[in-house]
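User: For my dataset I need records formatted as: sequence, then structure tokens, nothing else. Please produce one.
Assistant:
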Amino acid sequence: MRSPTTPRPTVSMSTPEAPGRADASPSKTRRKQDMHALQELGVALVALDAKRLATLDLSEPLADAIAVARKVTKHEARRRQLQYIGRLMRDVDAAPIRNALAAWAEGSQRERARFAALERWRDRILDEPDGLQAFFAGHPAAPREALAALVADARAERARGAPPRNARALFRALKRILDDEGTGAAARHASGTP
């Protein structure tokens, strides 16, 4: 039993300051997520074509590991090789690689959208009586006589049930026109003229 003269210990209600999260190391879960993300980036590198892979300036061990992974066909061996690539990726700055992959993906999406737009123009020109005039309204510099002849030939071959050679030629002509307009617009933009 405590004597009445012994002072009671005081209990502080404040908690000691927790160390700031800014200087603390990432949690185990976060480190695992980062490792999986690097491994997935490595998988994307393995799937990349050789020409684009060469532009990425990868370290020699990483480039060699990617080359080996492309040759491995056994499931478990491939999984281990991809894990190894993920470990090698820890020593690489992944941001430029991610940026390059994103730019290439965006470029291919843009190209698919452009191709679809060209197909829609071709189909509209061939299906609608005023389709060619609508195209000329949007693209006044287009060669009218050459396109009109291609359209007439493509419609005639469609009526005969012949293979769509002229329709393909029309598609290529539309592509050239839009490419030339894009090149001209880019040159005017670069020179500063409207």
